[in-house]
Amino acid sequence: EYYHSAHVLGRGGAGISVVENEDAIFYNPSLLAEGDGIYKKIVLASPTVELSESTRDIAVKLGLQNANTLDTLSGVIGAPQHLGIYNYTGVILRRAALGAFISSQNDILVYKSEDNGGLESVLVGSYQKAGLSFSLAEKFWDDRLYFGATVKYFQMGEALVDLSVASINETENAEISAADFLKTGTATSVDLAFTYSPKTRSDWKFSLVATDVGDTQIIKDQGEVGQPAPYKQMINAGIAFQPGTRMSKFKLLIDYYDLESKLYTN
Q1: How many CB atoms neighbour CB 225 within 10 A?
Q2: What share of the chain is helix, strand, coil (3-state, %, to 5)?
Q3: What is the DSSP letter of 73?
Q4: How far is residue 78's CA from residue 69's CA, in Å, rounded to a whole number?
Q5: Of 187, 216, 217, 227, whose Cβ has the fewest other Cβ atoms within 10 Å?
Q6: What is the end-to-end Cα distance of the chain in Å, rounded?
Q7: Which pLDDT value is given to residue 198?
Q8: Rounded CA Rg of the chain
C-alpha cells in the first residue's frame, strides 16, 4: 500500500469514482482531469494514521489507565496489532501532479503456535516505502471519458519475523540485528485508470483502475538478505451514482477490488 486516505477509509474504502486531489493520485488518477482552470492546490502534509481496534485498546490501558503490561498483553493473544502511517506532499494541478509520499505499515500478532507445542509465538511484519510520484490525466470524447496514469519511483524495506517465546528467551542476551530480516530495494510502478461519465446522465460514473501494472519488480539492494517479492497487479472497478439537487445529494458508491483475485478472495 502506497497511501491510505482518511476520507476513503471513512467511507469503508469505497469511492474509486469520486476521489479528488491527492486521493485521486493513488486511487484513480484519471479524475485529476476533472474541474476547470489549471491550479488546484499545494499539499504541505496530508497525514493519515490508522490503528487496529486492539492496538487502540492497548494504548488506552497502558497510557491512560496504567494497567499491568503483562496482563494487558496476555489478553490480546490472537488479536492483530496494526499501526499505519501515510503522508503525501506535493503540487496538484488539473491534469498533472508531482509530489512525494511515505508509507509505514507495522503489524504484530501474538498467537499459540501448533508447530511449537501450543506455546506463544510472535509474528512481526514491517513494510516501509518512501518515494516520488508523477501523475497525468486528460479528457476525451466530449469530456465523457477520462484517462490518467501515476508513475511512482520509491525505496522500500520489509521485514517478516516469526519467533516463539522460547527462542526469544534463549536469545535475549544475544545481539539480534535487523539486517538478518530486512529486505530493501527500489522500484518503479505504474497505475492506469479510466472513468466514463455519460453526458445524458452526469450523476453517475464508472471507473476501472489497474495498480502496479504488469507487476512491480523490486530491485534489491546489494548485500541484503533475500529478494523482495514483486507487488502484484490489481484491477479495481467502481461505480458512483449521485442523484440530487443543489440543496442535497445522495451518493451510492460500489467498489470491487482485485477483479483477478490475485491478492484477495472476494
Answers
A1: 12
A2: 20, 45, 35
A3: H
A4: 17
A5: 227
A6: 18
A7: 86
A8: 22
Q: What is the pTM of this model?
A: 0.84
Instruction: Provide block-wise average pLDDT over 10 residues at a time, the chain (266 residues).
Output: 90 90 96 89 93 82 66 72 94 96 91 69 88 96 92 93 63 52 90 89 87 93 74 94 82 92 81
C-alpha cell at 69: 503490561
Give the pLDDT score at 201.
65
**What DSSP character marks residue 66?**
-
Q: How many residues does the structure list for the chain?
A: 266
Rounded CA separation 159/183 (Å): 6
Residues 153, 238: Cα–Cα separation, whole Å: 26
Using CA atoms, how far residue 133 sits from 124, 152, 221, in Å, is: 29, 4, 21
Nearest alpha-carbon partner for 189 in 155, 153, 219? 153
Round to whole Å and give the CA distance between 39 and 72.
51
